[in-house]
Every structure is written in C-alpha cells, then in structure tokens.
Design brief:
about 35% strand, Aminopeptidase, binds coenzyme A, about 170 residues, single chain
Length: about 170
C-alpha cells in the first residue's frame, strides 16, 4: 500500500469516484446529497486537491495504483483559529477495511500537521451510531468533547454527531 498526497491533475477523477462511492455507501454521513455530488463539475473535485497555499490537502491510500482510501485536511483560515485543523471525507473502500489503511492515513496527517509546528488541535465530527469510526478515532487518541443533536438531516431522519478532538 502506498500513501501519498492527491494531485489535482493526476488524481481528480479517482477522487471524484471514491467520494461518490462514499456518499452512496453512507449518505447520512455527508452534508451533501448524492444528487448534489453527481451534478458537480470535475473542476470542483479538482479544486479540493489544489494547493491554495492554505495548508489544505487530501491524502490517499493506493493498492496497485487504485485509490482505496482517502482523508481530507482543512486548516482554519482565520488567524486566531489557525491552530486548528479539521478532518473530513474519511473513507476506505469496503474490500480494504480492517487492514490498517485509515490508521495509516491518519498517522500521515498527524505527522504532517505536527511538521507545521503551529497546528495544535485536530477536530472532526462523526455520527454517534458509527461505532467503528469512533473506535478508530479513540485508538488514535481523539476524545469526544460534545455531541450535536440533529446534526445531519437525511431523508426525513435526524442524526446526532459527536465532536472529537486530538491535541497534537
Ligand atoms: C471507519 C473506516 C474509515 C475505518 O477504516 P479502516 O481502514 O477499516 O480502519 P483501520 O483498519 O485502520 O482500523 C484501525 C482500528 O480502528 C478500529 N476500527 C476500525 N473499523 C472498525 C469497525 N468497523 N469496528 C470496530 N472497530 C473498528 C479498530 O480498533 C481497528 O484496529 P483493528 O482492526 O486492529 O481492530 C471505514 O470503515 C469506512 O470507510 N467506513 C465508512 C465511512 C465512514 O464511516 N467514515 C467515517 C466518517 S466520520
């Protein structure tokens, strides 16, 4: 397995593909619907991989050149909050789960965040029912600091999300 940053030219189509699969797999875990994601131009997926000089990136795991897992990192843009990074879009393809891929992706992100020296907190949100992902985050040292009731409203049903944080 190879772990590397995704490139806006080389990886945009594979990134679009895996993001759409993630929404199909767990539509209640995402802010946008499948229809919204499908209607977006390729350039929107590409722009998420572009280096805009703000420290944001998406990291991917590859098995034999196939993108099988992704995690996104977004740094808070405002100066007084720029010590915070947000993790988004965590997804590993079903056939590749429980092989340590998400763990390896997070370790790389934590390493990169530490390298920057001025990022001290990593935050993420996770559905309260997503026990597997919560177990992963707790293994990594994240802890729950709050719960947002009715955080996601999907298909007429409300889902709560935990807010989790890792101090690095
Ligand atoms: C959650 C997810 C990213 C985990 O990816 P993964 O590559 O399978 O995770 P890893 O193999 O690195 O797991 C590392 C550890 O996390 C915990 N863990 C991961 N998945 C788990 C599960 N389904 N149940 C219980 N513990 C789990 C375990 O402690 C595991 O170590 P172990 O396999 O030695 O017991 C993956 O299941 C997935 O993509 N799920 C659908 C999308 C999703 O839930 N994304 C998170 C949104 S916040």
């Amino acid at each position: 397995m190879k772990i590397r940053l995704l490139d806006k030219d080389e990886d945009a189509l594979a990134f679009r593909d895996i993001q759409i699969e993630a929404i199909r797999d767990m539509p209640e875990a995402f802010g946008e619907t499948l229809e919204e994601a499908l209607s977006k131009p390729d350039s929107e997926f590409q722009s998420k991989l572009s280096d805009r000089g703000n420290g944001d990136f998406v990291i991917g795991a590859f098995e034999k050149d196939r993108l099988v897992g992704v995690v996104g990192f977004h740094r808070h843009p405002l100066t007084n909050s720029s010590h915070k990074g947000y993790i988004w879009g965590v997804y590993v393809r079903p056939d590749f789960r429980r092989r340590g891929i998400a763990m390896a992706l997070f370790k790389k992100i934590i390493h990169k965040a530490k390298e920057s020296r001025d990022i001290h907190l990593l935050n993420l949100k996770v559905l309260t029912k997503n026990e597997g992902a919560i177990a992963l985050y707790e293994d990594l040292g994240f802890s729950i600091f709050g719960t947002e009731p009715n955080s996601i409203n999907f298909d007429g049903k409300a889902y709560d999300e935990h807010c989790m944080q890792l101090v690095i």
